[in-house]
Write a structure and sequence with these properties.
Strand content: 15-25%
CATH architecture: Alpha-Beta Barrel
Order of helices and strands: EEHEHEHEEEHEHEHEHEHEH
Distance between the termini: 21 Å
Number of strands: 12
Helix content: 25-40%
CATH superfamily: Aldolase class I
Strand order of the largest sheet: 2-3-4-5-8-9-10-11
Shape: globular
């Protein structure tokens, strides 16, 4: 696996459903821009953006309104022009018109490409489902449509992989000519019905990727996420955290905003001998503008 000496740090600012009435997640363009600037000052060069319903009291719901997406990304670019914007595109069902309209409006440098389907499940301690079992459906035709849209708007795909078979499928997408090298893979770890947040899994997952693949870990959970981040940095991967992925700092305390999470992630990378990529270096590593 090719190792980048510099590590690209991404901040996942807000996520898709976290209720801002209960947790300190940003929702409005002003809040998103302020948190993006805080993350950049702490060392992030990429921000992963979900968009929320801007109506009063509705910020716990996602939005695929291009005007909302545009207002948020315009505010982030005004506050921090050097940041790389990575836009979410995850949607259940075959209708991808909302995410594609947002791609057209925002023209982000990167966008998440959900590269395979997953039974999205969680069970409570009493044996009841935490939510009704659902299928996050990403069949090959849907993946192909997203790739075509990203190519049309000059967006670099970031392949989000929730399970080992999805990691291997990305290699097949490359062999089939759907994806162009260098391919970018995100190992999503910690979803209850997907790959666990275990550092011991990383060497095996790396073996399943082509030598030119750029990869990062997206780790969802509490204290366990920091062991995975440290191992990822040591193995040459890139790193992501933020209020979408965890609320908890390495000492177990709760983060009030994205900045302290990014500061902790930068420290983790430096402790294993990795330095943080600048925005220009990150663009070169990720092939943005190539």
């Amino acid at each position: 696996m090719a190792r980048s000496e510099k590590v690209v740090v991404t901040c996942a600012l807000t996520g898709v459903l976290t209720n801002p009435a209960q947790h300190p997640v940003p929702v409005t363009p002003e809040q998103m821009a302020q948190q993006a600037r805080e993350a950049f000052d702490a060392g992030a060069t990429v921000v992963h953006c979900h968009f929320r319903d801007q109506r009063p009291g509705m910020g716990f719901l996602p939005s695929w309104d291009p005007a909302v997406a545009g207002a948020i990304c315009d505010a982030i670019r005004a506050a921090c022009p050097e940041l790389i914007i990575n836009m979410s595109t995850g949607v259940v069902g075959p209708d991808i018109s909302g995410p594609v309209a947002c791609l057209e409006r925002v023209r982000p440098e990167m966008a998440a490409l959900n590269a395979g389907s997953l039974n999205y499940l969680k069970i409570k301690s009493d044996g009841q489902w935490a939510w009704p079992p659902m299928l996050f459906d990403n069949p090959v035709e849907k993946v192909k449509q997203f790739i075509e849209a990203m190519n049309r708007y000059g967006v670099v795909p970031e392949c989000e992989c929730f399970d080992t078979g999805i990691v291997r499928s990305v290699g097949m997408f490359e062999q089939a000519g759907m994806l162009k090298a260098p391919v970018h893979v995100s190992l999503v770890m910690g979803v209850a019905s997907g790959m666990p947040a275990k550092a011991s899994w990383l060497p095996l997952l790396i073996e399943e990727m082509s030598p030119t693949t750029a990869w990062q870990t997206i780790v969802i959970g509490r204290h366990e996420v920091w062991d995975v981040h440290r191992r990822s940095a040591a193995l040459g991967g890139h790193l992501r955290t933020g209020l979408e992925d965890t609320f908890y700092l390495p000492d177990g305390s709760k983060a009030a905003s994205n900045g302290p999470l990014i500061e902790a992630l930068v420290r983790t990378a430096r402790e294993v001998g990795r330095e943080i990529a600048t925005p220009a270096e990150a663009r070169a590593i990720l092939g943005i503008g190539a």
